[in-house]
Amino acid sequence: MKKREKRDKKRKKRKVSLLVKLLLTAAICTGVYFFASSSFFNVTSFEVSGNSYYSEDEILTMGNCKTGGNIFWGSGCKEIKSRLEKDAYMEKVKVKRILPDKIKIELTERRQTAAVVYGDHYAIIDNNSRVLRKSSVEPKIPLVQGLTISKLEVGQTIEIEEKVKFRQVMEILKTMEQYDMYFKKIVISESDVKAYIFDYLVCQGAPADIMEAMENEELQKVIRELFEMKIERGTIKVSGESYISFSPEIA
Questions:
Q1: What one-character-per-residue DSSP string does the chain give?
Q2: What are the distances in angstroms from CA 36 to CA 31, 39, 41?
Q3: What pLDDT does residue 125 have?
Q4: 186 pairs with which residues across the strands?
Q5: How far apart are CA 5 and CA 11, in angstroms?
Q6: Pairing relation of β-strands 114-118 and 45-49?
Q7: pLDDT mean by block of 10 residues, the chain; 251 residues
Q8: In sequence order, which residues have a C-beta less than 8 Å from that of residue 178 and are 6 or more positions away?
Q9: The whole model's pTM is what?
């Protein structure tokens, strides 16, 4: 009988101990919930990083970012991320909670590479040919003329009828950036490419020859010599094996 009584007492103690633990856990969870729900964790500020094209105020407006909500369940982090990702300039968007009261927005923007001219308008594209926006105002980036646009939709890859020529243009732009060059405008024709350094100083030749001349830095050398002589008008003709000639006439 004594052994049975001892076992019963132990069972009762275990039950009481378990009940006490459950009550303590519930009390702690309740306390944590009310503390987390307090004004101490209300969002008071936003921090934006990685933005270049858009200003911080524009980002906050686009994301409909508002202070005052609880950082855990009233900040709208998912909604902010979703709204920002709809913009074609946004490549990556991260929205983080910085306790106790700050929301941090980290962005990776797509960079404007060129503007394809169509009529009196421009399609601004990145280095992957994605359309970032349309514009009626000439942007301060390389312009591409002489191509026929078959499909143009913001956020989607632009479709050009002259696929090979367009690919060559994108390769020229990539090479241009790699070798510290800048063309104001690139005009495509059936026979060659005209890359404008200034309004009246043109580099003319086949795309492959122009790229080779840049890679060998022969084209840069000729341009520097022309600058030193204060010549800003004429045609630089590039042919195979980086052969370069200059004429004061505009091609």
A1: -HHHHHHHHHHHHHHHHHHHHHHHHHHHHHHHHHHHTSGGGB--EEEEES-SSS-HHHHHHHTT--SSSBTTTSS-HHHHHHHHHTSTTEEEEEEEEETTTEEEEEEEEPPP-EEEEETTEEEEE-TT-BEEEEESS--SS-EEES--EEE--TTSB-EES-HHHHHHHHHHHHHHHHTT---SEEEE-SS-EEEEEETTEEEEE-HHHHHHHHHTTHHHHHHHHHHHTT---EEEEEEGGGEEEEESS--
A2: 8, 8, 6
A3: 98
A4: 144, 195
A5: 10
A6: unpaired
A7: 53 58 62 63 95 97 95 90 98 96 97 95 97 96 96 97 95 95 94 94 96 95 94 94 89 73
A8: none
A9: 0.83
What are 154's two structure tokens?
């913001």
Tokens of 16: 């009481």
pLDDT at 186: 97
Which residues, 6+ apart, have CB-to-CB distance to 236 below 8 Å? 197, 201, 202, 203, 204, 219, 222, 223, 226, 244, 245, 246
Structure token pair of residue 41: 């964790």
